[in-house]
Design a protein that fits this description.
The complex is a heterodimer of chains A (299) and B (437). Chain A is mainly α. Chain A is built from 13 helices and two strands. Chain B has helices at 2-35, 49-65, 76-89, 104-109, 116-122, 134-139, 165-170, 179-192, 213-225, 242-256, 267-276, 334-344, 347-355, 363-366, 369-374, 378-386, 397-412, 418-435; strands spanning 40-46, 68-74, 96-100, 141-142, 148-149, 151-158, 160-164, 281-284, 304-307, 320-326. Chain B has 437 residues and is of the alpha+beta class. Helix content of chain B is 49%, strand content 12%. Classes of the chains: A mainly alpha (299), B alpha+beta (437). The A-B interface holds A 1, 18, 49-51, 63, 69, 133-136, 144, 151-152, 154-159, 162, 242-249, 259, 262-265 and B 1, 12, 77, 80-81, 84, 88, 106, 199, 209-212, 259-265, 269, 272-273, 276, 278, 396, 398-399, 402-403, 406-407, 409-410, 412-416, 435-437.
Amino acid sequence: MPKSRKSYNAASKRDLVFASLLIAPAIAVLLFLSIYPLAYSVWISLQSETANGVSIGLHNFYRLASDGFFFTSLVHTLVFTTAALTLEFSIGLGLALLLNQHIRDRGLFRALLLVPMMLPTVVVGVVWRLMLNSNFGAINGALKQLGINTEQLTWTASPGLAFASVILVDVWQWTPFVFLVLLAGLQAIPQEPYEAALIDGSTRWQTFRHVTLPLLRPAILIVLLLRTMDLLRVFDQIFILTEGGPGFATETISLYIYRTAFRFSEFGYAVAMSFVLLLITNVISTVYIRFLQTRESAS
Amino acid sequence: MSNVSHSIMKKRIVSVVLIAGLIAVGLLGCKTATQQQSKRLTLAVNSGVEGDALKQAANDYEAQTGIHIDIAEFPYTNLFEKELIDFNARTGAYDLIMLDDPWFPRFASKQFLADLTPLLQKRGQNGPDKDFVETSIALCRHPYQTGNLYALPYVGNSQLFFYRKDLFEKYGLKEPQKWEEVLAAAKTIHEKESTGAGGNRIHGYVMRAAQGNAAVADFMPIFWAFGGEMFDASGKPIVNTPEGVDALKFMLELGKVSPPGYASFNADDVGAHLLQGTAAMSINWPAWIGPFSDPRKSKVIGKMAFTTLPAAQKEGKAEIGNWLIAIPRDAKNAEGAADFLLWVTSTEQMRKSAERGNPPTRTSLFSDSQLVAKYPSYPAQLKSLQTSRPRPRTPQWNEIENAFGIFLSKANSGELTPEDAMNQANAEIEKILQRGQ
């Protein structure tokens, strides 16, 4: 039905008003759920409690510089992230390459590999805590059966072993995720480049290096990005497994932030630390994206 | 065309009506909630045996008076967070709160709690009942012992010394009065019981040395007995005095006869060792007494004995750990809350709470013949409670305890020498105190 221009305009104006009414709740929700809290958290980070009330300023950020606990927990977080990410990525990639081949029962293997990922992290923490118990745990129990002296294997009680334990548990739980994403990436690669490589007489390593890896880059980017963000803010498993101990040996930045906010009720300082973590996460993510994307467009 | 625009119109009307309806329902909900406020009480309780007793009492109260009681139940650490958030936001969500006594200085010094004296006077009482144990009521005053009353004590926990009387008899040892005797007995048992059933030895001692609350709670009685003090008279931290360092060295000696890995032990690990009969002695809380006579959990039925804490240069003193009940400053129904508070801490109600497994805070109940028949350790508990010491009364206790616990744990896991651990702990505590000034 033909319409005059005028009435069309009027109608579209009405629609526009109605449309904005319809999206208003969504915008309001967004304002309340992300923009307002973000602005408010900046405000909180500027507040610190003193004996004469709340003072406003950058005290919390100055305090970061002289806080040994903050610095140590930050180092722990970075070491933990690097170690766990390296292990998860190499094992995950290996498994993905292996199970991308036509081996028998690969469906079964894939399903089994995904089990750890489906468990809630808290449950994983509790299960490993029980298994790693140096006196009654399954792991030392099994080692004892093999005739190994477990007196010194106090998993969560000696600083070095405790740190290794929390890495081990994260690798156990999250390697399947890396594997899953990389496997999906591998399966999306078409056969033709491989055939071409075969015809050109490239070795298996050359094929992997020049065909598989470049084509897998988007999947690698996603998996590294997500895992890094998750690892930097790791909390649940460590909280359950060691609660940051023994001493301060496995305290990560998230645990320290939690303690500062909810045990010591110094919300301003906790928020200031959270901003540092946010900044680090952002920088690392940007580097990943730049690095992996430019290489993609160059190749 | 008219059909189409009609249906659009209809849809618009329907959606506007729906939204308006939703808002109206929300507002109505608020309205009715405020109207019924005076006949309602909201309680924040700890999930655990202490909170359960209070919950059951609340049910009885509801049945008796018709006043509806809402219970907000949280695990230990969450309870602290929730209460703190409620105080800071001044929402007045709770009319009564349960609190662990170390939280009290923080809450009271910020004037988060209602002064109980006027509420008691209105009800014809000049002060708290004299029957309450003195060390318990002292916790409810700010400043400690001398100030205004902001809470009443509900559960009267204080540490006890647990030991295996069967092993002590077997090796002709007598009940330890001194920490030296504890160490000697622990060494004897550790050596003689090195090949128990299934290759499991019985360790001489067991303690919690995980960072934070655990290590500090198990260390304080040793620290105090050796003459250590956390603060001097002017409030300066002095944990690194020779007495303090000696106490930590002694803790490490006990560590040598404790199960490997004790540096990460929490209450559950210590409990497991005692119940399994793989450790002979420990400092522990009365809540653990019950499970020893439960055949499903315990391999040491009738073998445990409980006494007051050993001495060294100084008298042995337990750490007190009472659950208190207070009325928040912003409580919506403070009068109703005061009625309930007096009712639930009365002798009759506290007897019920004791029967439900919570040590009382009233002197008369500790010598009540029926209760003593059920809980033979009550005389020892009363003695321990009466001679107990509180954790240092400072609003920053959580932070100080955390820092102190980290260094104690570091010493126990071999990361630091006792001297270094105490020096670093002292420096850290000083830093925390400075921040509060």
